[in-house]
Specification:
Strand order of the largest sheet: 2-1-4-6
Number of strands: 8
Strand content: 25-35%
CATH topology of the largest domain: Immunoglobulin-like
Number of domains: 2
Order of helices and strands: HEEEEEEEE
Largest sheet: 4 strands, mixed
Bound molecules: copper (II) ion
Shape: elongated
CATH superfamily of the largest domain: Cupredoxins -  blue copper proteins
């Protein structure tokens, strides 16, 4: 059996390509994607004593607000403009909404309209 140098080089190149492909595969798509300017954050609004606490939060586009009802009464987080409605939040339950557009979003509790808050998205 004679070994051709061309064949040996070809085999070497094939192995090299395989290693390089594996490396690219392991690096994954994240390596080519630009890193986000800021990881998405979650702002927490507690519902207690018939109030949203804090009553106003300012977040960045892409961030999420989480409302958690710490009250004994049932409340809602309901957009004044119909953008979202949590439905009834019983004691200990939460509702999350991610805001993908900038703006000022007033909201209230549908059960207790005197409870109001604002989400500002920049
Ligand atoms: Cu309420």
């Amino acid at each position: 059996m004679s070994r051709s140098p061309a064949r040996a080089i070809l085999r070497l190149l094939t192995a090299l390509v395989a290693v390089l492909s594996l490396g690219a595969l392991m690096a994954g798509p994240a390596a080519s994607a630009a890193p986000p300017a800021k990881p998405a954050a979650e702002a927490i609004v507690l519902i207690q004593d018939f109030q949203f606490d804090p009553p106003s939060v300012t977040i960045a586009v892409g961030d999420t607000v989480r409302w958690t009802n710490n009250d004994s009464a049932t409340h809602t987080s309901t957009s004044d403009k119909g953008v979202w409605d949590s439905g009834n939040l019983t004691t200990g339950t939460s509702f999350r909404r991610t805001f993908r557009t900038a703006g000022t979003f007033p909201y209230h509790c549908a059960i207790h309209p005197s409870m109001t808050g604002t989400v500002t998205v920049r």
